[in-house]
Design a protein that fits this description.
Length: 276
Amino acid sequence: MATPTLASFVLEGALGPINVDVRAQTRTSPRPAVLILHGFKGFKDWGMFPPFAERLARSGITAVTCNVSGSGMAGETFLYPERFARNTYSRELQDVATVIEALHAGALGVAPPPRLGLVGHSRGGGIAILAAERDARVSALVTWAGISHVRRWDAATMAGWRQSGRLEVLNARTGDVLPMDIEILEDALANAEGTLDIPAAAARLAVPWLIVQGIADAAVPPSEAEALKAKVPAAELMLLEGAGHTFGTVHPWRGSTPEFDRTMETTIRWFARCLT
């Protein structure tokens, strides 16, 4: 097979540019594609995503990664805190729709794909569920440590957030203190039982779905994966003994782990079966 090539694009998103990378073996013949969605405080070049995208492209499936417009990232540097501060779930979902539309319009340097898959990590997993339920062009779904609800804060945190109008969170990777404006909380609470209702969207899914979850995940507990599986009995749940939130991988990338190797191999086989 041909060696995949990498091309980069910029789309206009809800809060500014959406930076998109496309890895593909061919750019003229239609091939199935997979859009890979990062999580909260994540970005397209974080540790495990480029190696996975490269392996996916080598399998013959076009791999699309992106930084949503509210990620705050420029390359691997956090430069836009004002965008991160306004990165609501609804805006992130809008950005994903923009990327999918561009891909199917032939605006990302490859022929429009005949079939599309989504894989999302953590918060990106929840977004992937919502997007897959909304867009009939999505033919297969994989979530890695995907969240099962958008209300992620306790009562005391929400009370303090409302009082100050801003919540600050630490980016352990860089040491940056990242701001979150009150509109993020308002969006989540107002739409948790509507357009952002992840369990309800999951129950309506009509595509094959693989749920991957580390049993030792301290950020998104296995109970969330089990709750999602309960909504869709036909979904396949893979629990990884000893695996944490990023399956033992770190940023900068220092190589794979047995847990992440299994995650990649199972995910690629899943998409090969469902998309090709």
